[in-house]
Design goal:
The chain has 142 residues and is of the alpha/beta class. The protein has one domain. Helices cover 18% and strands 23% of the residues. It has 2 helices and 6 strands; from the N terminus they run E-H-E-E-H-E-E-E. The protein has a 6-stranded mixed β-sheet with strand order 3-2-1-4-5-6, sandwiched between helices. Helix 1 links the parallel strand 1 and strand 2. The longest helix is centred in the N-terminal third of the chain and has 17 residues. The N and C termini lie far apart (38 Å). 30% of the residues are buried.
Length: 142
């Protein structure tokens, strides 16, 4: 490092991420495994795993879990699908996240308007990204 210059190799992203995982009945066990694998990949790019919170939910608020290890994420739900409640729950948490990722098949009602926190829909393979509202960014997994 030259004096006064911070090179990219000496920096790590310091962002707080909330991940809402759709655990409704339409999500297969494979889909849940893919969702958790994405969370693991995410934690490898963030300096502190403590900066990632997971909410596993179907049509309720879900329970906030600090991400420690994939095996420790409690999967609840497996009923109907409505991601509006867990998304709003994530948006209300303190300290606030920099971004909320919603990992889902896309077959869900979505909030009608943008939230105060950036929200990105991560659509599982064979999901319905066309149902994601225009105000949200979207990523389609292959």
């Amino acid at each position: 490092m030259r004096e006064g210059i911070l090179t990219p190799s000496r920096m790590s992203p310091r962002i707080r991420v909330d991940v809402v995982i759709d655990t409704s009945g339409s999500i297969s066990d494979r889909g849940l495994a893919e969702a958790l694998a994405e969370v693991v990949k995410l934690t490898r790019t963030i300096t502190s795993v403590d900066q990632v919170r997971v909410i596993a939910a179907d049509d309720d608020e879900g329970t906030v879990q600090k991400f420690r290890r994939r095996e420790l994420v409690e999967i609840t739900g497996r009923g109907g699908t409505d991601m509006r409640k867990p998304i709003r729950h994530a948006a209300s948490l303190k300290p606030a996240a920099d971004v909320i990722l919603v990992i889902t098949d896309g077959y869900t009602p979505w909030p009608d308007e943008p939230l105060a926190v950036e929200c990105i829909a991560v659509i599982l393979p064979n999901g319905a990204d066309y149902l994601v509202p225009d105000w949200m960014r979207r990523v389609v997994m292959n």
